[in-house]
Amino acid sequence: MKRQTNRLGGINVTTVVLAMVTAVVTTGSMVVGPVPATAAALKQVTDFGPNPGDIQMYLYVPKNVSRHPGILVAMHGCNGWAPSFHQDTEFASLADRYGFIVIYPQGNKSANGLSNCFDVWSDEALHRGRGSDPVSIVSMVNYVVRRHNGDRRRVFATGFSSGAMETNTLLATYPDVFRAGAPFSGLPHGTLGPGGGWGGKTPQEWGDLVRDAYPAYTGPRPRVMSWHGTVDSVLPYTMLQEQVEQWTNVLGLSQTPVSTTSPQPGWTRRVYGSGQVEAYTVAEADHNLPLPGMAAHAIRFFGLNHARTP
After folding, report:
1. pTM recorded for the entire structure
2. For 187-241, what is each residue's pLDDT tens digit?
3. Phi, psi dihedrals of residue 201, rounded to the nearest 5°
4. Is 226 a residue of the active site?
5. Which of 29, 132, 136, 161 is catalytic?
6. What CATH number should be reported for the domain holding residue 163?
7. Domain, as residue range, for 59
8. Which chain regions cross the lipid bilayer (predicted)?
9. Which residues are CB-contacts of 239 (< 8 A; sequence separation ≥ 6)?
């Protein structure tokens, strides 16, 4: 695929031909069926706390929420909408089953003619505590902890495209908040920022971008499950390996997988270390993840699939 150089938020970055995104990326997922009549309602929260990114918060609390529920942040792609990502993905139905709470942030940044993106390029977004969308999203998590007795030990992030990029950025900037993440069709943290780029970096250089996001941090790092389609026409499939190299380096793991399996036809799963990093290749998939069934794998990876306690 031909690439071109554009400017993004005043930063020179190399991008794929993003004119294709509008046709492919609307909600950031495939429709998986109507919301059950017994499901809870998605609600907007307007007073959740500090919001330097000036983004909106939508919240899904299942009717049979656990007494001390886990928290999942689920983020749409560019040109997408939080309510659509809620309706068109399986995270809410899984929350109904297991009793965790889902936060759906609404991105509002513009980039390369796209709208409703999450900030993954500014200095504020790429470094802990400096502002923009990551600070706003952590405020949303803190709101759920305060108002719904959320479990700080079980906070996770997932997303598609721009939301997947923000997932990696949240894991880098707030490793003490997010225990794991599952980016679908994303890019490594720092790709679109100063010193980033679309390849040609060593694992050490990718890892340094994460370490630079929070230089003082010495605690445990989040686990990561990355997904990418082999015929992604928007973000190159090679970005899956770049994410693997980034997170295995950060976690001090070998670049060689300990196992390679096929969970179902067309999927290849590579596991690194003792399961801290997983990479899923989806054969013949375009820029349209998560496909039906994939969200359940992410929920199991997070450990949110145990029985709820109403």
Report:
1. 0.88
2. 999 999 988 888 789 999 999 999 999 999 999 999 999 999 999 999 999 999 9
3. -95, 150
4. no
5. 161
6. 3.40.50
7. 3-223+291-302
8. none
9. 186, 187, 188, 191, 198, 228
